[in-house]
Structure formats: structure tokens, C-alpha cells
Amino acid sequence: MSSATAPSAVQGGPEQGRALWLSTIAFTVCFAVWTIFAIIGVQIKRDLGLSETQFGLLVGTPILTGSLIRLILGIWADQYGGRMVFTFTMLSAAVMTALLTQAYDYPTFLLAALGVGIAGGSFSVGVAYVAKWFPKEKQGTALGIFGAGNVGAAVTKFAAPVIMVAYGWKTVALIWAAALLVMAIVFFLMTKDDPDLARRRATGAKPEPLSAMMEPLKNIQVWRFSLYYFFVFGAFVALALWLPRYLIGVYGLDIVTAGMVGAAYSIPASIFRAYGGHLSDKFGARRIMYWTFLVSVFCTFILSYPPTEYVVQGIRGPVSFSMSMGLIGFIVVTFVLGFFMSLGKAAVFKHIPVYYPDRVGAVGGIVGLVGGLGGFVLPIAFGALNDLTGVWQSCFWLLFVLVAVATVWMHVAIRQMERQAAEQGIAARSLPELPEMQPIHGAAQQGALAATGPIQDWRPEDKTFWDGGGRAIARRNLWISVPCLLLSFSVWMVWSVVVAKLPSVGFAFTNEQLFWLASLPGLSGATLRIAYSFMPAIFGGRLWTTLATWSLLIPALGMGFAVQDPATPYWIFLVLALLCGLGGGNFASSMANISFFFPKREKGNALAINAGLGNLGVSVVQFVVPLAITAGVFGWLGGAPQTATVAGVTTTLWLQNAGFVFVPFIIASAFAAWFGMNDIATMKASFSDQAVIFRRTHNWIMCWLYTGTFGSFIGFSAAFPLLSRILYPEVNALQLAFLGPLVGALSRAVAGKACDRIGGGRITFWVFIAMSAGVMGILYAIGMKGDPTSFPVFFASFLFLFAATGVGNASTFQMIPAIMRKEVARLEPGLNAAERVKQSDKEAAAIIGFTSAIAAYGAFFIPKSFGTSIAMTGGAETALYAFLAFYVSCVLATWWFYTRRGGLLHDIEHGGRTTPAMTPAQ
């Protein structure tokens, strides 16, 4: 009986969850014991005076035992049940780990290390046990979670050095043995026999003989396939063992610090394995393997380069320079290497339950055996290479050769398989993901490991589809989009804070130059939005969101370096200010992308959440940056501080943190976008398909109105800190600057549902009246300057204005889909109902992006208007009167085109009959 079918009866039950999570915890403890020599071996090497080769053999010996024993333990798990075999394995390993303390010379340590290696055999037992609790469609994810127990290597690196320094290596061995013993007891008492074993006991069936279990091992593809695992797992184990020794030798770290840094490699190489199965489902096992191998080729090549001194015979004599990788760079590259290794491990093991559902233990055992042998052979080879070459980086030479050969071999095999299939007229989609599985690839496996690709069937207006899974997908994309957009706004508006601090740290820029720096991100961001608004439909929302988020690193890092030297030319700051516009451009593509995911009845709320919480980035930057620049958050890596003098008071600032503080969050969000978001096939459209919006009258009207709301929000956000410093120099308004954007962003986020319920047009009408009142309040406050209440009135009027802009941002965007549903029905009468919905959604998304692009010019014109007004008249009043006249025109335009009786949205927003094109069922 197939083990893939047996678990259906217990699917989702509490026994299933306990089996998975207790197995994962038990494997974590076993893995921590299995790699114990990575830490205690360093001290033993010193005590016994071992050579590098002897040390490599010592740390690799447990890996040898754990690898060789995996095959028989996996078979026993299939025959007699994983629960009993797992418990027996942990008890045996606990005894042998405790006996390690009795070793006294090199041969006895090698003998004891063989016994400790029993813990590594637990992998094949756990794979067989966990797989039998889950149906085929969930086994990849379940095994990925179980495999994350590799993080035990990081547990050892974090905890063992501290214990060893305080109490000695023997105490480490005893504590690890005790942990295994306790885990064995807990596992046995709290888990149950797997469903396959329970069924056999109930029916009196005997386990299959050893010969039957070994049958799949006759297939050559099992052995060829195992070679992949030799690198993705074997090299992982080898590096987990070798890195502490490497870090001590190359960077001179102590054992505690080396263990902590080594864990930075082990953690991503372990915990992300749980996600690797999901990614294999989404993008295909072949693509995951390509990612793994190609990134590993790059990383191992970088790590292979030893510190080198160069002398070039130049025109004026010898020119010398050196190249070497610092500790931080090493950590980053190994982190990336470990992350992609984790994906490769999941992709490899995902094949086993698909192709060998009844022999998971036996096949998993042999694949794990070959992979584990990599963990035994490679550390010995690393030590031997060190002895032979005297170069620490030689270990990465070997890994580079291994992964380069594997990459070429896999690619050539895939291309050969595809060419043969094409010659025989076989469809490419019927082929296996990896060529070595072709002899046993049948109808049952066809497409099981292939990429799902973009979502082909997306019908959010269909309530059954929406409730059956569409809502969950849409919300996941929304909540990944939000932090990406928040960071985009933060980078876009960071100059609004930085420019106010530049004079105090020694930059001799005039007020006009400072206003230009505050204005230019708005100019470039608005211009980029015009192009960005069309990009999701051309490239796909997932890809474009990822690229756009990565691009934020350019201005963030550039600013961090530029502000550290007051001699930095002004033109460099102008370039960096323009590059900050990359963050501004992201809004258009983000909103266009998210609009595709939600039905009309929820678009307003979804767009309000995305934009409103994204707009919080303005508030975040104005709150976080003033705090971040007051402390050396990044230590020596962040550079030296600057001395700032304001009103005769001298303080220390790290102005570079204004850019650096966002870097780790940008990286994390970019990864989340790539691995967590979706593309929708029906979203794809060329620029010419979307260019129809330029012929739509209401596109230009909405550009005017959205410039009034969002243009004001972003423009006042950029101008307020500097304007306040000039008008009220006695007040430290920078501490309060974040409140305005915060109020505007939150009001936008909460206004979405009201706009869906009441109607965007009606709310927009009253918003512009409120904004006019806010401007008059600001003019009144400036007129009473010198009065103690002047600044409170000024600040309160600005807060009121920000709140109104936030509500208006939500209401105007709610109007656009409703407008286009009616307009497409009128302008394209030849389209059927489904085509009208599709066309109106595409046009609405493009208009949302385009209007946001035009409106973003407010980030340039408003600060520049204030600067020009102050330069020409000595005050800001002229600019404010111009804004007031503009808001009055928006009130009139909203009333005439949309809210008056006979206006386009009047019937919809006053409970009138909905046109056929807007029926939710469509």
C-alpha cells in the first residue's frame, strides 16, 4: 500500500501536527549533537596538537557514521515504524555522546566520534516517519519543515562556545547528551505510531522484507540524483563544521565570536528549507536547482579569492594595491550561500515522496547517505588542502569546482533531454523537471514538480472564487506590498529630514540650494511614475516590485557615504536627490499591481490600505531618522560620526544612518516580494494596450483632482520641516514633523471602507472644501506671527490639512474604478460583460498609476513654490494663496463632472440603479 494514501484519514488531526513538530524539534537536537565537534573540536585540536588534516578527519568522523547508518535506519523506519526507531536512535546517540568525555587520545576520540555520529542517522528516520502522516500534495512542505531541523548546527554554534569557555568541552558533551535523552523520552511519550504501521498492525500484515526495500536502489537515477544532495547538503554540513576554525584562522576571532558568526551561515541554510518546498511548487524544482547552483557558483567564486597584493608598473612608477574580503562581506556572502543551499535541499527531497511514495525511508536514506558523505569527505579535504597549499581559501576552491561541474552537468542533461523530446514530438510540459528521473517518470508524476507560473484563472468578482482562496492570495500580495511601498516613501522623503541637518554638520549650502535638494526627489519620482505605472502589466507585478525595491539600495547607500564628508560636491547631492525619486516611482507600479487583485467592492479599501500604510513611510522617515542619527547604530561599519553645532550647542551625529538604517529592511522586503508575491496572467498588457487611457477624458480630470490630494500630501510632507525651520527658527519643529504625514497616512488607510460605502465622489467634494479651510488657517497663523499662539495654530492647521489630504487620497482612487466601469461600457459597446470588466480593470489600473505620477509632481512644486515665494516676497503667503485657488478649482471640477445631479457618479453614489457593467457577478 502506498504510504502516500494512508495518511488521509488523519489529515489535519492533532496527531499529525504533533508528529511533524516533535520530529522537527527532535531532529534539531540530533543535528546539534551531530555537529558538536565544530566547536569542541577546536579545543581538542589545541589540546592534542593536531594538524589541519587530523582536525578535518576528527570533525568529519561523526558525519561518516551518521551518513552510512542512514540507509539501514531509513529501511527500519519503513519496516518497524519511525516512532520506535527515532527513539532508539536518540537514546543510542545520547549514550555515545556522554561516553565522549572518557576519550584521552586521538584514536579514542575518533572512536567516540563514530558513536556520536549515530545522531545524524535520525534524518532518514524522520523523513520516513513524517512523510507517512501527510498526503502527497503536502509532503513537500512537511518535509521542508522537518528538514529545517538543520538549524541545530546553529544552536551548537550559539550555545556551545559560551558553555565551553565557562566550563570546558566535557560539560558541553554532557549537556548535549542530556538534551538528547530528554528529547527521546518526550518524543516517545507524546507521539503515536504512523498510520502505515498502525494499519499493518490492525490487519496483521508483516513488514516488507529487506530485499524489497532495497529494490529502488538498483535504479541508477537514485544515485545520480544523490549527487545533487552531495553539494546542497554535504557542503552545508562541511561548512557548518569548518567555519568556526576558518574564522579563527583567517579573521582572528575567538571561539565564541566565531561560533556566533558561523551561525549566521547555518541559520538561513536551515530554516529557509521549510520554505523551499513551497517555492519548488510555485516556480518548479528545476528553477530552484538552477537558482541554487548559479548563486552558489557566484558565492564560492567570490569566497575563493585569497587576499592578494598587486604591484602594477605605472607611468610614474609602481602602483600597489590589495584585494581582500572583510569579515562583514564574508558573513553576507555566506548568508546568501546558505540561503540558496536551503532551497536546493528542499527541491531535491521534494522528489522522493513523488517518485517513491512507498520507499521514502530507503530512497531518502541513500540520498541522505551520499549527501552526508559530503559532510565527511569535504572537511578532510579542506584540511588536506590547507596543509598542501597553505591558503585558507582553498576550501572554497574545491566547492567552486564541485558546484560548477554540477551546474554544467545538469544544464547539459536538461538540454539533451529537451532536444530528444523535440525530435520525437514529445511536449515539453510532459517531461520531468530533472533528466535523471526520466526512466521512472509517468503520468502520476507529470506536472507534480513543475512551476505553477502566473495565476491563469483570476476572477475576484466571482464570490465563490473569492471566498475559496482568492481573498487569501490577494491579501498576501497586499501585505507584502505594504512594507515595500513604505520603504519606497521613506527613501523618497529622506531628504526632507536630511537637508535640515546638513548646515549644522558643516555643509555650506544656501536656503535655495537646500530647497532644491528637498524638491528634486519629487521631480524625479513623479517623472519615473509615468513609466512605472505601466510596468506591472508589462513585466508582471512580482518581478517589478522586487526590482523596484532592490533599486532603493542605490540612494540609501549613496546618501550614507556622501553625508560623511562636508567636502562632498553639491552636484553629488543633486544626483542622490534625483535617485531618491526611485522610491517615489514605486507608488505608481504598486497601486497598479494591487488594483488587479481585488474586486470592485473592495478595491477602495485595498488601495487605501496599500497607499495609506505605504504613505506612513513619510512619517517613519521623519520619526526614525532623527533618532537613528543620534547613535552609532552600525558601529565601525557605519563610519565616523560628525560634530553638529546648532545655536551654539555642539552634539554628535551619525547623519549617514539616515540612509543606512533602511538597508536591511530593503533587502528583507525585496526577498519577500520575489518569493511571496504572485503574477496574474490576465494583467499582462503592452504599453500600446494601456496607452488608450490618454484618450480618456476622465484620466486627465482625475490627474487634476489627485494632484490636489496626494500632490498636497507629499509636497507638504517634503516642505514642512524646512518651512518650519525658516518661519519659526525658535521651535524645534523637526521633532513634530512626522505627525503630519502620520495623520495623513492613517486617515487614508481608515477612509477606504467609508469611500466604498458612501462613494468617493461625494467625499472628495468635501475634502477639497476642508483643504481650503486648512490653507486659510495656515495663512491666519502666519499673519499673527510673533504671537505665542502662532505656531500652535500653524501646526494644527497643517495637521488638519494633512488629515484632509489622506481622506482625499483614498476617495479619489475609489472613484477611478467606478468611473471606468461606466465609461468602458459606454465607449466599448462591442465588448461582452466579461471583456468589459477586464478592460475597465486594466484601464483603471493604468489610470491609477498615471494619476499618481502626475500628482507626485507636488513633491517638487510645493517645496519649490515655498522657496520661490520666500526668495521673491520674503514670505510663504503667495504660494499659499496659489494653493487655495487650486483647491477651489478642484471643488468645482468634482461637483460638475461627478457629484451634481447628472454627474457621472451621482446615480451610483446616491443609490441609483447600477449599470450592467458594474454588476458584481461580472
Question: How would you portray this structure in words?
Answer:
This protein is mainly alpha-helical and 922 residues long. The chain is 73% helix and 3% strand. The protein contains 39 helices and four strands. The strands form two sheets. It has a two-stranded antiparallel sheet with strand order 1-2. Strands 3-4 form a two-stranded antiparallel sheet. β3 (642-646) and β4 (649-653) form a beta hairpin. α34 packs antiparallel against α38. The longest helix is centred in the C-terminal third of the chain and has 38 residues, at 790-827. The radius of gyration is 32 Å and the shape is globular. Keywords: Membrane, Nitrate assimilation, Transmembrane, Transmembrane helix, Transport. It comes from Falsiroseomonas selenitidurans.
C-alpha geometry: globular
| Beta-strand content bin | under 5%
Average pLDDT rating: 78
Rg, Å, rounded? 32 Å
**Strand arrangement across the biggest beta sheet:** 1-2
Discrete helix count: 39
- Which regions contain 5 or more consecutive residues with pLDDT less than 50? 1-12, 912-922
> In this structure, how is the largest beta sheet organized?
2 strands, antiparallel
Distance between the termini: 47 Å
Element layout with pairings:
Layout: H1 14-34, H2 37-48, H3 52-80, H4 82-99, H5 106-116, H6 122-131, H7 136-147, H8 152-167, H9 169-190, H10 195-203, H11 210-213, H12 220-251, H13 255-266, H14 268-271, H15 273-283, H16 285-304, E1 308-314, E2 317-323, H17 327-355, H18 360-389, H19 394-423, H20 463-493, H21 495-501, H22 511-532, H23 535-539, H24 541-550, H25 553-562, H26 570-579, H27 581-595, H28 600-628, E3 642-646, E4 649-653, H29 657-660, H30 663-676, H31 687-690, H32 697-727, H33 739-758, H34 760-783, H35 790-827, H36 833-855, H37 858-873, H38 877-899, H39 906-909
Antiparallel strand pairs: 1-2, 3-4
Helix pairs in contact: 1-6, 1-7, 1-8, 1-9, 2-3, 2-12, 3-4, 3-5, 3-6, 3-12, 3-18, 4-5, 4-6, 4-9, 6-7, 6-18, 7-15, 7-17, 8-9, 8-13, 12-13, 12-17, 12-18, 12-19, 13-17, 15-16, 15-17, 16-17, 16-19, 20-27, 20-28, 20-30, 21-22, 21-32, 22-26, 22-27, 22-32, 22-36, 22-37, 24-27, ...
